[in-house]
């Protein structure tokens, strides 16, 4: 979801660039021979109101899934095993979240400086950036970024929420610092193996093995040797 939303946010920003820059001109703005309406265009408020709404909708799509993940992770009684993400993984979450916020704020500043017509577009991006910061610091501060095992699935609450059910599971393996769960019909889900604290690896392996059917699920040698 993060990647999908980020890609579409950038796409809409790029599409809006020539139209936004046209608002700096009194008349018609031309780029590579293409004419774009300026600040006097009668439908500017509608167009940029829709753009602001699109940015808010994309932000809400990402936020809803991430917050649901955090609230699930905090309910430790629902897990047979649960542990906070490792310190390196938390540092990665913080780094990427701050990078996203920096990009969003930079885009907002662009809109703010071009024209008052774009103020709502800039505000929409500031709202999304604020939610990013809130999600990151709540998750880190309350230790809600976690990996857990339930009777039905492995749940990883990272920058994205990953739920890996046991139904149809055929193989569990470790390869190049990634934990893979492979299913029938060529479906493969994965999480970084370094998301699990080194001191919790044995507990994770034990509880995962206890939840699956060992007659049907194969554990590769790398997983067995993982410490």
Question: What's a quick, concise take on this entry?
Answer:
The protein is an alpha+beta fold and 227 residues long. Helices cover 52% and strands 20% of the residues.
Please supply descriptive tags for the structure shown above:
227 residues, alpha+beta, four-stranded antiparallel beta sheet, four-stranded mixed beta sheet, 10 strands, 52% helix, 20% strand
The coarse silhouette is: elongated
The quaternary state of the protein chains shown equals single chain
Question: How much of the sequence is in beta strands?
Answer: 15-25%
Structural class: alpha+beta
The span between the termini is 31 Å
Question: What Rg, in angstroms, do the CA atoms define?
Answer: 23 Å
Mean pLDDT: 89
Strand order across the largest sheet? 3-4-5-6
Helix-strand topology string:
HEEHEHHEEEEEEHEH
Strand tally is: 10
Low-confidence stretches: none
What is the count of DSSP helices, taking H or I runs of 4+ residues?
Answer: 6
- Characterize the biggest β-sheet: 4 strands, antiparallel
> How much helical structure, as a percent, in the residues?
40-55%
Structure explained in plain terms:
This protein has 227 residues and is α+β, with helices and mostly antiparallel strands. Helix content is 52%, strand content 20%. It has helices spanning 2-22, 44-73, 87-114, 119-141, 201-211, 221-225; strands at 28-31, 34-37, 81-84, 146-149, 153-157, 161-165, 169-175, 178-183, 188-192, 218-219. The longest helix is centred in the N-terminal third of the chain and has 30 residues, at 44-73. The mean pLDDT is 89.
């Amino acid at each position: 979801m993060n990647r999908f939303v980020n890609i579409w946010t950038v796409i809409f920003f790029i599409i809006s660039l020539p139209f936004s820059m046209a608002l700096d001109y009194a008349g018609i703005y031309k780029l590579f021979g293409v004419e774009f309406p300026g600040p006097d265009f009668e439908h500017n408020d509608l167009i940029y109101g829709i753009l602001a709404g699109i940015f808010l909708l994309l932000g809400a799509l990402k936020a809803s899934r991430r917050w649901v993940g955090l609230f699930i992770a905090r309910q430790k009684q629902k897990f047979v095993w649960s542990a906070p993400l490792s310190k390196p993984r938390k540092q990665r979450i913080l780094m990427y979240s701050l990078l996203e916020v920096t990009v969003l704020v930079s885009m907002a500043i662009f809109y703010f400086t071009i024209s008052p017509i774009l103020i709502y577009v800039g505000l929409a991006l500031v709202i999304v950036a604020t939610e990013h910061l809130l999600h990151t610091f709540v998750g880190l501060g309350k230790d809600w970024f976690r990996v857990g095992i339930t009777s039905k699935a492995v749940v990883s609450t990272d920058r994205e929420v990953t739920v890996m059910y046991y139904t149809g599971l055929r193989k569990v393996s470790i390869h190049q610092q990634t934990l893979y769960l492979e299913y029938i019909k060529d479906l493969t889900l994965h999480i970084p193996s370094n998301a699990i604290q080194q001191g919790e690896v044995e507990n994770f392996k034990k509880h995962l093995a206890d939840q699956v059917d060992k007659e049907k699920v194969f554990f590769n040698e790398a997983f067995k040797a993982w410490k």
